[in-house]
Structure formats: structure tokens, C-alpha cells
Amino acid sequence: MGVTSIAQDSLTVDRLRARLGDFWLNDISFSIAPGQVTALLGHNGAGKTTTLRLIMGIIRKDFGHVSLGGFDHVRDEKEFKQRIGFVQEESFFYKGMTVRELCAFVSPFYGAWNKGLSRQLLQALDLPGDKKLGHLSKGMRTKVSLVLALSHEPSVLLLDEPTSGLDPRARVEILKLLRKVTHEGGTTVLFSTHNLHEVDEIADRLIILDRGRVLAEESLAALRCKTGPSWNLEHYYLALVP
Amino acid sequence: MNIIHLIAKDLRLQRNFVLPLMLLEVTGYLAYALQIPSHIPGVAFGLLHGVALIGDFLICHRTMIAEEKNRALMFIKTLPVSTPEIVIAKFGVNILLVGLNTGILLALWGGGREFGWIEVAPSLTTHLVLVGLTMHWLNNAFFITISLVFSSEHAVWVPFPALFVVITVILNFKQIKIVLHLEPFVDLLQRREALFVGLIWAIIVGFVVMCSWTLKHKRIFA
């Protein structure tokens, strides 16, 4: 399975601000270098999903800028999304469609859709093309989301808790695939998670959100270096976000 | 091209619904129309449009529920598609399905007269076909607008009873025209078919623009 990336662009989020009811997301800023894997951490309600949805334009921002390779996420919406693959925590698909029909529906929207790669991914993830999406388990639907997000060979992959609620086998398969796309394809990844073990396993950097603010933004290698052999992500995280 | 792909997706999703709906409408209409005495002109034709009006509503409801039930607009929004394209495609698929639905009923009317099943007036003219189709597109566009603006197919049920008012107006239009002194206006629109059709299309385009603007400025899309 040859996963390649179409471009090496960095994702920049600058002073992103939005209000959702009584929840405020305040001046979220970060930049992710090409090929870097960044984990978005935080308690429930910290603003992880909101941040990802704001980047994708599903939620309207009040202020701020998001750009990828010079393309603004609102002004150049289509060009921006051509370069991004997004996996939502819940897969909102047409349940009456089969996996193959969904791929056939999504493929024409992407100029760089790779049919061969899509077929390979379906096979590698053991997804039945003729099965209706409504009959798939949550893990299978997440895998379908991943196939859709990767088949146009995006330069950036956004994942909202991709392994939450999955059985260990599906979780391992998804992490294996993520490692492959980042190491072999050089894809930039931003993923939200509650699983610190996963962060330690695949991330290069972490961003910790708390009550709609960025609390910390660190390189894991630098943290490990600073702390030495006593390094423990759980202790570090809990010390920051009590 | 994106609009065409979105329309094709909706047509694929609705393929198992459209045929049974049309069969039901045709048989339901025939069951009533054939019992209407031929000396009451226009009633059978009014009834035909009444059936088509309910068809317009059901088509809108079905195409919107496909998104609502699956929260699929949220998924569509993650694709490289603009909000106006999503809205135009939704109106586009409805225009196609309503055109087909009304077209079949009008063809039934024309065929019925031709073969002598239905003896009452009016005979089918280009004017009647054009005006009939346009009115059904407007009716359907109104329901789509409600549904998109309020992001819920449930919202379309709120103005649903208004359909019966519209059906009553169609059935009694001759009397209403006299009572409300609308004859000069109706005559003008009848003489200037293009003006009438243009006016209705301007309203439909207005609905499309309003939906695009509303969805673009909503806090959460879908």
C-alpha cells in the first residue's frame, strides 16, 4: 500500500476564536510543520472537537485565521479541503449506501483521488465493499472514514478521537495505518485523543487544551529530554490539567 | 460538476421512493377523478394539482430526511464543496423530481382526455403545463427553504396544513378571483405567461440565495 502525500504544507491556526452557547474558544494559535504528528489533548469539553470543526468550517468562527499552504479555510474553502482528510468521531454517512457507493460518491470531489489506493485501503482494513454503512459497527465506520480521508492523498490529516470506543484489534489496525501514512507518506497529522498511551506512541508534539484555551504546546522529544528516564506523560498531563 | 455529483447522489438515494410515490399518486388520483361527475368542470384538474402538491411536499421531506436522519450535511461539509453548491444541488434535485412527478400527472390528464377517460375541461395547453410546473416548483421550494433555514426536516411539518388551504384556493379559484377582484391581475398574468413564470422563478432564486446565506452564516452547519 503506497501512501504518498501531494504536498508538504504547514497548517497554521492563528488566534481562532468562537462562542458556542456559554462555551468560548479563546485565541487558539498553533502551527504544525509538514510531516509532524500532533496530539490534541484535554478533558471532555476542553474544545478539541470544536477546534477541529472550526478548522474544517463546520462551526463558524468569530475571529482568527486558518491556512494550509497559503489557502485560507474560508476564502479558499475548496482548495483548503482538497488538501485535508478529516475523520470525525461520529461518522455521519448515508446509512443506505454501501461502502463502495460511498467511495464512488466522494471520489469525484477530489482532483487527486487515487482509486488504486482506495481499493488497497479497503482491502487492507478488511472492509466489505458491498455492505451497507448502516450495518457496519462503529470501528468499521471509522475505518471507512479513514479510507475516505486518505484516498485523495491529503497533506494534512485531522482526526477526532479516531480510536475512541474501538475494540483493541481495530485500534491497533488504525494506529498501524496512521504510523504508515506519517512515516512513509510524510502526512501531517493533528489528532485529538484521551488516550495518553497513543500520544506517547505516535505523536511528535502535543497541544493541551483546557476550557477553550491552549495550556501547553510542547515537543515530546524535548519533554523526554528535559525529564530524563523518569518521563511520564500521564504525570505531566495531570500536573498541568488537574 | 460538484452540483451534478450531489444531485446524482440524491437521485440514487431516492430511487426506491420516487416510483412507489408516483404509482400511489396516479392510482389515488384515478380512483377519485373517475368518480367526479363530468358536469363539474375543473374539479378533476384541481384535484390533480392537489395530489401533485402533496407529492411536492413528500419529495422535499424525503430528500431532506435523508440528510437529517444521518446528519449527513455535516459529512458533506467536510468535502471540498461550497455551501451555495450544497443548496443549489438540493433545490436542483427537487426541481427534477417535482418536474417528473407533476409531468407524469399532467401526462395522465392529457392522455386521459385524448383517450376519452376524462371528459371535463380544461384541455392541456403549453401555458397550463408551464404554469402548473412552475407553481409546483414554487410550492416545493418553499418547503425546502423552511427545512434548510431551520436545519430540520421536522420544520417542514409546521406549514404543512397550509397545503390544504392552497388546495382549497385552487379548487375555488374562479369564485375567489371574483370576490377579491383579482381578474385584471390574473388576466394580465395569463396574457403575459413569461412575466408570470419569471416572477415565480425570481422568488425561487430568492429562496436559493436566502438558504445559501443562512447556512453560510449559521453558527453550526447542519
Care to describe what's here?
The complex is a heterodimer of chains A (242) and B (222). Chain A has a single domain (11-240), classed as Rossmann fold, CATH 3.40.50. In chain A, helix 4 runs antiparallel to helix 5. In chain A, a hairpin with a 2-residue loop joins strand 9 (205-210) and strand 10. In chain A, 35% of the residues lie in helices and 25% in strands. Chain A has helices at residues 48-56, 77-82, 99-106, 115-124, 138-150, 168-183, 196-202, 220-227, 233-240; strands at 11-20, 23-32, 37-41, 63-68, 71-72, 84-87, 156-160, 188-192, 205-210, 213-219. Chain A has 242 residues and is of the alpha/beta class. By secondary structure, chain B is an all-alpha fold. Chain B contains nine helices and no strands. Chain B has one domain. The model of chain B has no long low-confidence stretch (mean pLDDT 83). The longest helix of chain B has 32 residues, at 2-33. The two termini of chain B are 22 Å apart. The A-B interface holds A 20, 56-60, 77-82, 86, 88, 90-97, 101, 105-106, 108-110 and B 1-2, 5, 9, 12-13, 66, 69-72, 74-75, 77-82, 217-222.
Structure summarized in a few sentences:
Chain A is α/β, with parallel strands linked by helices.
- Cα(first) to Cα(last) distance of chain B is 22 Å
State the low-pLDDT regions of chain B, or none.
none
| Average residue-wise pLDDT of chain A | 88
Poorly predicted runs of 5 or more residues of chain A: 2-7
**Could you give the order of the helices and strands of chain B?**
HHHHHHHHH
User: How would the global form of chain A be characterised?
Assistant: globular
